[in-house]
Amino acid sequence: MKPVAQTPETVTVHVPFRFAKRGGRKAMVLPTPAPDPWAVWLEWYDDGTIHALYENPYWGGKPGGRKKRATAMLKRAGRGDWKCLECGELLPFLRRVDAIYCNAGCRKRAARRRAKRAEYWRLKWP
Ligand SMILES: [Zn+2]
């Protein structure tokens, strides 16, 4: 009879940590649980309602800032404001709630357009 799965010779385990000097001694620093930008999202339903959904973090079970973020996103979506100012596309859910552009490209395009417009008015009225 053949074994179902052979055990590998070596197993690589990745442990995320770094060393930091603490008063001349090296100390192991573990990563702090960072906010998960994918944990909050919006859903548009056919009946015209918008739902803001979030997942509780696995370590605490309490929503923390996610409820606040979901509420802020829902407020903007209710105004029809959860869109990029430059291209008009829907903002990605990982963007900050006060973001106005969908990515750096749109932000730079808007800045170039503003600069061009400023240059135009500068030349018109010296
Ligand atoms: Zn955009």
How do the helices and strands line up, and which of them pair or pack?
Elements: E1 18-22, E2 25-29, E3 40-44, E4 50-54, H1 66-78, H2 104-124
Antiparallel strand pairs: 1-2, 3-4
Zinc ion is lined by residues 84, 86-87, 89, 101-102, 106.
Write structural notes for this entry.
With 126 residues, the chain is an alpha+beta fold. It has a domain at 37-124. It has 2 helices and 4 strands. The chain has helices at residues 66-78, 104-124, and strands at residues 18-22, 25-29, 40-44, 50-54. The strands form 2 sheets. It has a two-stranded antiparallel sheet with strand order 1-2. A two-stranded antiparallel ribbon has the order 3-4. A hairpin with a 5-residue loop joins β3 and β4. Residues 84, 86-87, 89, 101-102, 106 line the site of zinc ion.
Characteristic terms for this protein:
alpha+beta, 2 helices, binds zinc ion
Topology, number of strands: 4
| Strand/helix succession | EEEEHH
Contiguous low-pLDDT stretches (5 residues minimum) are none
Proportion of beta-strand residues: 15-25%
Distance separating the two termini: 91 Å
What binds here, in terms of ligands, is: zinc ion
Structural class: alpha+beta
State Rg.
Answer: 24 Å
* Biggest β-sheet: strands ordered side by side in the sheet: 1-2
